Amino acid sequence: MNLSLERLFLALGLAGLMLVAGCAHRISFAPDPQKIVGSGAPRIEKAVAYQVSADDLQREVTTSASWRDRASYRPYRELDAAIGKALSQVFSSVTRLDQPFDPRRPPSPVPQLVFVPRIVTTSSSPAPVAWPITDFTLELGSQVLDGQGKALGPLSVTGTGQASFDELRSDPSLAARRAAEDAVMRFVQALETTPELRRPAQPAFRLLTPVPRMP
Fold first, then answer.
1. Which residues contact 151 (CB under 8 A, 6 or more apart)?
2. What is the pLDDT of residues 84-108, one digit of tens each?
3. CA 129 to chain centre
4. Is the dihedral of CA 15, 16, 18, 19 positive or negative?
5. Domains of the chain as residue ranges with CATH
6. What pTM was computed for the model?
7. With left for phi above 0 and alpha for psi between -120 and 50, is residue 153 left, alpha or beta?
8. What are the distances in angstroms from CA 39 to CA 22, 90, 141, 186?
């Protein structure tokens, strides 16, 4: 093969590599619901709700996969059911809200606590060309509101997942799924061990001055 043909094939190979590089590969990493289990302690006798809007479900995120490649996914859609399952392992009643909680028009049963999830992800791979994600981090946070819509404070956990290239050949989403399952199980543990979530709910209104009886 002469030098000009070698250069031609090299140029074609580089062009093909440039076409492949920079792609956003779709992944799906919803946790296995059978793996989301509590410690076995009695559930907290509270009605709670969690809020995931239609906009949240459609929100798409793109993070690094390798060199110039990216992975795209919808984290709230992936974790929607898992968050509900996690809450149901700890509380006696769980309701899903698809719009912001309004204490003036509460759902039935009226929630004593409302969780507003926030999901942040990062990903990477050491390979310069092969795209599957080998390292994935998922932060699952939630603002916690009481039944009157008052913020009680944030709750946050972080899950991590790794997978080898051999494992990723059959499941390119494996590292992300492991991170999601790790985060959800840490979320269950945080729900079980946060004492503020066990405190009795305050009444919506408190009568400060007794009303005198009518004669």
1. 143, 144, 145
2. 999 999 999 999 999 999 999 999 9
3. 28
4. positive
5. 45-197 (3.40.50.10610)
6. 0.81
7. left
8. 43, 9, 20, 11
